[in-house]
Amino acid sequence: MQIPYEQLDTATLEALIEHFVLQEGTDYGEHEVTMERKVEDVKAQLKRGDAVIVYSELHESVNIVPRDQVTADEE
Questions:
Q1: Per-residue pLDDT of the chain (75 residues; tens, 9 = 90+)
Q2: Is beta strand 2-3 parallel, antiparallel or unpaired with respect to 61-66?
Q3: Can you spell out the DSSP letters for 3-71?
Q4: Predicted structure pTM score
Q5: Which of 18, 46, 49, 65 suits a disulfide with 5, CB 3.0-4.6 Å?
Q6: Which strands make up the sheet holding 51-56, listed edge to edge?
Q7: Rounded-to-integer distance, Cα 6 and Cα 32, Å
Q8: Domain architecture of the chain: domains with CATH
Q9: Contact 39/64 with Cβ under 8 angstroms?
């Protein structure tokens, strides 16, 4: 099930994005990117609709995923 990012409290959204960024370990190339910048990048992806927040009842977890990875039962 998708959760619109606008429905989350600001602090909750920030914590979710920070958790996502920390677990992803994304490589940004030769240049070091700050946590703040990574969080802003994920927020921008959510606002554009390139990424979505998905809740899994089965796993009782919330995650941020690229829109193209969302299955029909999560929409």
A1: 999 999 999 999 999 999 999 886 655 566 778 889 999 999 999 999 999 999 999 999 999 999 998 876 556
A2: unpaired
A3: E-GGGS-HHHHHHHHHHHHHHH----TTS---HHHHHHHHHHHHHHTSEEEEEETTTTEEEEEEGGG--
A4: 0.81
A5: 46
A6: 2-3, 51-56, 61-66
A7: 29
A8: 2-74 (1.10.10.610)
A9: no
